[in-house]
Amino acid sequence: MLRDAIAVAALLAGGPDLVAARLEPTVTTTVPTTTASVAACAIISSSWAAQIKTTATPTVAAALAYECLNSVPLHKDAAIELVDSIEPYLEWQSDAAYKADPPENYFYPGYDMYSNLAKVKSNLQANEYANEYTFQSDLYNTVVGPGHDGHFIFYPDALTKAFKWRRQRSLVSISEDGKAMPVIKLYEDVVSSPGTASAVKLINGIHAAQYVEDTINAATYNQDVDAAYNSMFYKASMSAAAGGLTGYFAGGGRISLIYQGPNTTFTFENGTVLSLENKAAVVGNMTGVVDGDSFYSAFCVPKKATAASSSTPVTSNNAPVPGYPKPVIATSDGIVSGYYLTGEGLEDVAVIVLLAFESNSPAEFQAVCQDFFAEAVAAGKTKLVIDFQANGGGYILQGYDFFRQLFPNVQQDGFSRWKGNDAYIAVSHIFSDEVADLDPFTSSDANKIGDYETWFNYRYDLNLTNDKFLTFDDKFIPHVFKDTPYTAIMRWNLTDPLTTTNNTFGMGIEISGYGKLANISQPFAAENIVMLYDGVCASTCTLASEMLRIQGGVKSVAFGGRPIEGPIQGVGGVKGAQILSFQDILTYTQRAASLTKDPKKLAEFARYSDLPIRRSTAASVNVRDQILRYNVNDGLPAQFVAENSDCRLYWQAPMITDVSEIWKAAAHAAFNGAECAYGNIASSTYKRVSSVKTNNRPAMTRQRTSELIDRAVQPPIHSERWLAVHLQKANPY
């Protein structure tokens, strides 16, 4: 039965019992056991109560937490109700048909999320699950995990509200000389003793690289296997972007919801062995949790839904980016920072780091980029490294603006489409009819303006040729690919001030290349720009990257990847063009339901409830496909298009503690002819569609645009509906 298969898999995760002493001192612990008279959940609750007084996140043995989870009884009827409630939301997943039948050159196997969801339901009906944990694990592992999609997620309550799995060591992937295949070492060893750190040969008895790959592939938010592999290792960029995260092998990411066994055993090339107990971070309030029944009551009984909170800007401490050198300029939250390189052949190279496209202030984000480019050019910098490492996305139009700052006279494609599921088309009919006579620029009805300024209104967006849609059918008549109806190709209308400059409905900034910023100068020649990746470029980052590569002709360098010869992709994250949470979809369907009396439409909207929202910690779908110019006719989403970087490089030991070494290596490969581990930027076949010549100019005194922004004044607090329109980022955790 299924319960037996899950139990066997859990046992195998621990690997063989490799017990040996390592040469250097280590601390090895044993897995605690429980007796029949003492429940695992009660032990954890007691330990949590003692630790929480002095520790922000208490930890316990992973095996103990696993035992607690397996004591949680299955509530069959509630589980079936949950599965049924998820189904209508999955119908919004725009590329589901392609996930079921991907192109031959797509690495991950196809899977049918709808069939798998139905299988989970049939397993429930047939009493195949031993407890709540095995049910939710199967739901997560078979419906969500195989999607490899940073916008598609459902985090069930039992898996996420109480525990997150952790390991006691982090890994790095480094080449000894930049040419040899990378090997795996412990991050802690490389930092403390880089000259003597031994490579890891086996993890739990399995070849180290294979173990890492197999582990992350079970549930990664990356669509590319090399990007997924990279995410398992420590990188300064990930640590800076994700609050100190040291790689998903140690903790975090989607695999932190999958039990990895009671311990992890490392066998090193020098013959030593290190075995460490795996941990569970106790992230839930364990008050009153003494057994499986009380666990279910605490974490799995749906609580009354609360009103969605608005986005509140985070107060910045003006600290520099952790682990990075002092910048020339940076946003107050450290999301954007600029640097100048030093060293032979690098005197004219500037580096801009974008940890995300979401910052506390879109205006400051834009202004800091403007200031840095202007000051770099004035200081004689003619070359630019764009560091996209660990960039998981952010505000969509911030990505558009960044591209147009670098290429103000180049029209971006920005092609996308929606899946025409029944609810989407029903909402579109209702909203389009509602605002038929509305002038959004003179109306005082905020709700109607909000409905007008959405993709559901056929008058919103532009078509493939940057013209307006004239009728409902122009935009929404089905375009069928893989037996799935899709909308027409659409593009953002960046001349609409309600989308751009308006602070209530828009970004609150003029997009570069438009309006008052229509005549700005291009700061760098295309051939003098290089994009730097670690594979983790997702969501809005992919949109900006595609524009820079396709419309700008910018070259790229990608680091890392599996220890296999050949090219790797730089943009390894989700390439979808829009994410909506389940709550967003529910809000739109409820709004539409309040505006119609059509029984058929009301019946469709009645399928949506807040149950899956209350029974999860995160739930979202990718609702809009990005379509590259090469695939407008065949309809293949960008998510399934392989786009290898021009140059592949390997990390080396000095790069683990000095991020500037990564920048220098990328710059030398891009501008000074340094050899790549694979590929060659000089022979890149990408067409350069724009070129400028920049002369060295004397440094000049100018007031920074970013200094004109009053940082004491907080940016507007945006509604959840505003975020649904403008915010797009991968959900990796």
UniProtKB/TrEMBL annotation:
Query: Which residue ranges does the record assign to the CPAF-like PDZ domain?
Result: 165-286
Source superkingdom: Eukaryota
Pfam families reported in the protein's UniProt record: PDZ_CPAF_rel
Identify this protein by name.
Answer: CPAF-like PDZ domain-containing protein
